Amino acid sequence: MGEGEAQGAQKVDYAVRLRERRKLAWAVAVGFMSSALLMVFTLGVVTGALTTGAALAVAVAVITLFVAFMLMDIVWEGWGIQLFSVITVIIVMLLMLNIIFGRQVMP
Amino acid sequence: MAHRVLQIKRWLFTTNHKDVGILYLVTALYFFVIAGTLALLFRIQLSVPENDFLPAGKFNQAVTNHGLLMVFWFISPLGFAFANYFVPIQLGAKDMAFPRLNALSYWLLLFGGLLMLAGFFMPGGTADFGWTAYAPLNTETFTPNPGANLVAFGLLMLIASVTVGTVNFLVTIFQLRAKGYKMLGLPMFVWGIFFTVLMMLWAFPSLQAALTLLAVDRILGANIFTAPKGGIIWDHLFWFFGHPEVYIVLFPGLALALDLISVFSRRPLLGRKVIIGALAAAAALSFGVYAHHMFMTGVSLSYLKVHMFTTELISVPFGIITILAILSMIGGAIRLSTPMLFALGSIAVFIIGGFSGVFNSNPVLDIANRGSYWVVAHFHYVMVGAALFALFGGLYYWFPKMTGRMYNETLGKIHFIISFIGFNILYFPMFFLIDMPRRIYTYPEWTGWGPLNFIATVGAFIFGLSHLIMFANLLYSMKHGPRVDRNPWGAWSYEWMVESPPPEYNFEGIPVVQGNRLMVVMANGAKPHVELHEGNHLSPWPLLISLGPFLFLLGLGMWLGQVKFALPLIVVGAIISLYSVYGWFRDDFYERFKFEEPPEYKERWPFTSIHRVKLGMYFFLFGDAVFFAGLVGAYIFMRLEAGATLSGLVTHNILLGLLATLLMLWSAVFMYIAARGAKLGDKTLALAGLSLSTVLSLAYVVVTGLDWASVFAVGFTLADPAIATSATTALAHVLHLLAGLLVALYLTLKIWVRGFTGHVPETLDALAVYWGFLAAISVLVFGVTYVF
Ligand code: HEM
Ligand SMILES: [Cu+2]
Fold first, then answer.
1. Measured between alpha carbons, how far is residue B323 from residues B84, B170, B192, B206, B622 in Å?
2. Average pLDDT of span A23-46
């Protein structure tokens, strides 16, 4: 039975059960981990430890991608979804970088 | 009479991919006639110097709407008419993956186009800023024409249509191939559509971001595009979409031409895999060349050089494709039937168009050509020439399949010859008008541009009127043409294995591919397995769910233009919108609309174990990521321009921001838990997760609202581009969330009342992915707009 037809409440087989329980536990862990990351990040900004610029950008990108890949279930999917996710990240970066670097006007 | 009514009902409520294909076809041709008429009008104006047939304002409106209608409502939809009709059959499927969404794409397209046209009837006229809508020309200050708002709304509806269609085609191509049908064996046309929708997926959201910001400018009085460098951010967002868009226009036709060449020279295509690779390379590169449209904006040269280099690279894959297409014909038993003539014509003009493009890619040369009729010639050679000729070839090619009757071959050939000659008389002189600027409504005598323009206008009439031959031919043959059997061309893709016209579900049984042959087998070796797929193909909701927003936006546009009767339209539109959403959900609640092909009869590589609803959600979000990237990118741009005085740290309360983000984050965690509950069959867990998630996300909305209220209370306004762009981002996020909450509410009710029936677990799983996406976006928004 594929993922498709998980119908009756009783007939969920053991493998699916195990997998879903593991995903559930991970989601809670991810919730705490990313909350902590966000708080540390905010603290860093408020105290001035995290100065603007590259460090900030990297921190934001890392936390965003962490949340996206974990909570969007991408880590649990097959390579097809993962490939498309990575392409999307590249395209998003491409747009951002173009906007940032294609901004200076010639003297 | 009753029969009539049934017919009308069928066309309005249909969700069958072939009916939808026909609707697309008729609609595309209708917009072709309108946009073509506009072209003839402004060609008359340009035919002689100092003409006063159309005044400047009318001229600009005609040019603008001509461009927009041709690109968005004619060429692309024509390609998708065939894609709708034939891709499922070519895959060995009985319909698209989401038939109702397919109908929805169509109605959104139609009503979007009607909104565009309504712009003409607004007092003060419609959009006149060219199809690229360059900023700040597109803003209220420079284009007060109220019709321009309707144009922007029409485009937004089109984008909605494209988004839905894109997701649908991707899931269909990935998951509905007949068992045994490998990706590499698909016809070139399917490959062309595949790359087209991929480009659409990642390109259109950038335009969506641009238009959303424009709407904020025009309606809420922000100053994003009137800001000192507002024009440049428009350029980025527009051309990040715009360059892929020109390939989006090209690919269906180009790929179709390749299929036609192979069928009519009775040879397999040479280097099929190389061609597929070349298409992939061109599609990928298309996202990295767009600044060649910005050579004149004054953006720094070192940045432009990168794009110049990639632009020159892009001619390589196209060169390979053309050469292989030509080599494929050598030694074949070529038959010059009408479709083949059009395919050959398409390749021929594509070569000229492609060459002229390479010249444009050099900033130095381009400074001379820029904004001149040379560019107009270039892109008409590729867009009209390559795309339109190939697709008209397709219309002749598939006509017998769609109608069961043959068109008149002689008239077809005459149509080709006249239109091909007319086309070249129309556009070739423009290569010589290299010193004549585009978008001027008239020119003085001494320029010497008169004669060439006159020739072009004559060509325009020949080209334009030549299509009447086609219309007459096809309309007559539809009723009176000789009957044909399944495969008049001796072609090998699978639409030719079924009757002409194909039966409602294409295959009466289960299509399976073995070797290169398609066979229709029966489940259990018994009678055809009809009951598997015999759903009800009718649904009124796709129509109504598009009609509602149409009326609403029309009313809004009229209200902004101070036209009477706007308010009733707004109210009626809102009511229809709400009612039709309710109706769609109600149908799903009672599972009235069912259509699904059993996954075990399908080839689903590489997405073998993921449900189509979730897969569709993923694709939607991959596109949506670019939408948010565009909005956030615009904020970064404006913030860098504004300097630290408008930093989020100054404008926002960072602790409120943190609180909001944490609320959103945990809302996503609980939605994820709810989805696990559904998979585990645990009703309590699912309902608890759903309700907690709902409460937390509502709290998120409230906190975000409070925070923004305090920003405005301190005296910041939308007049600041940095504020306007970040406010738009926040608004877009909240609207996404509210739309999601509707689905969450529906799922809560359904699980509560009916339990895990139908696709509830899969839908909830997909919704959790959506929530995870929104959490990631809110982290991004917090990290960028509050902190930076
Ligand atoms: C073979 C490779 C191609 C190259 C190297 C190329 C290059 C260029 C360049 C550099 C420009 C900018 C010219 C200017 O504005 O001064 C341009 C404009 C344009 N190209 Fe191409 N092009 C190619 C193929 C195509 C194709 C296949 C299409 C469409 C099917 C297309 C459609 C357009 C359009 C619509 C414009 C004008 C946009 C506007 O309104 O400003 N091009 N091309
Ligand atoms: Cu381009």
1. 29, 29, 17, 33, 34
2. 96
Q: Which residue of B has its CA nearest to A83?
A: B606
Which ligand has the nearest atom to the CA of B374? 1
Q: Are residues A54 and A10 in the same domain?
A: yes
Nearest CA to B25 out of B76, B66, B95, B70 is that of B76
d(CA B509, CA B667): 45
Q: Give the closest residue (by CA) to ligand 1 atom 26.
A: B382
Per DSSP, helices labelled H in B373-447 are 373-380, 389-403, 409-432
Residue B51 confidence (pLDDT): 95
Instruction: Let me know: does B286 contact B243? Beta carbons within 8 Å.
Output: yes
* A83 and A60 housed in the same domain: no
Contact criterion met (CB < 8 Å) for A102 and B779: no
Pairing of strands B177-178, B602-603: antiparallel
Best of B243, B296, B622, B777 to mutate (most A CBs within 10 Å, chain A) = B622
CA B768 to chain centre: 26
CB contact under 8 A, A9 and B676: no
Give the distance (Å) from ligand 2 centre to CA of residue A105.
Answer: 21
Tell whether A68 and A85 lie within a shared domain: no
Looking at residue B536, what is its pLDDT?
Answer: 66
Residue B230 beta carbon below 6 angstroms from any ligand 1 atom: no
Contact A98 B291 (CB under 8 A): yes
Phi, psi of B603 (to 5 degrees): -90, 125
- Please give, one letter per residue, the 3-state secondary structure of B101-160: HHHHHHHHHHHHHHHHHHHHHCCCCCCCCCCCCCCCCCCCCCCCCCHHHHHHHHHHHHHH
CA dihedral A32, A34, A36, A40 (to 10 degrees): 180
Please count the CA atoms within 13 angstroms of the CA of B328 that sit on its side-chain side.
Answer: 26
Whether A41 and A89 share a structural domain: no
| Res. A14: pLDDT tops 60 | yes
A64 and A85 together in one domain: no
Mean per-residue pLDDT of chain A: 88
pLDDT of B401 reads: 98
User: Considering every ligand atom, which ligand is closest to the CA of B68?
Assistant: 1
**Where do the domains of chain B lie, and which CATH numbers do they carry?**
15-532 (1.20.210.10), 615-786 (1.20.120.80)
Q: For chain B, how far is it from start to end, CA to CA, in angstroms?
A: 67
Ligand nearest to the CA of B294: 1
Contact B613, B759 (CB under 8 A): yes
In the prediction, which pLDDT does B277 show? Answer: 98
Do A68 and A94 have their domain in common? no
> Are residues A27 and A72 located together in one domain of the fold?
yes
- Residue B484 corresponds to which tokens in the numbers above? 């044909």
- Which amino acid, one-letter code, is at B530? V
Pairwise CB contact (< 8 Å): B658 & A39: yes
Q: How many angstroms separate the alpha carbon of residue B360 from the centre of ligand 2? A: 9
The sign one gets for the Cα dihedral B577, B578, B581, B583 is: negative
Q: Note whether B341 and B393 are within 8 A (CB).
A: yes
**Domain that residue A98 falls in:** 77-107
Q: What is the ipTM of this complex?
A: 0.95
**Does the pLDDT value for residue A52 go beyond 80?**
no
Same domain as A72, residue A87: no
B323 Cβ contact partners less than 8 Å away, ≥ 6 residues apart: none
pLDDT value at residue B142: 86
| B780 to chain A: closest CA residue | A64
Identify the segments of chain B with pLDDT beneath 50.
525-534
Chain B contact for A25 (CB, 8 A cutoff): no
Binning pLDDT at 50, 70 and 90, where does residue A9 land?
very low
Domain tally, chain A: 2
Do B777 and B700 touch, CB atoms closer than 8 A? no
CB pair distance less than 8 Å for B649 and A100: no
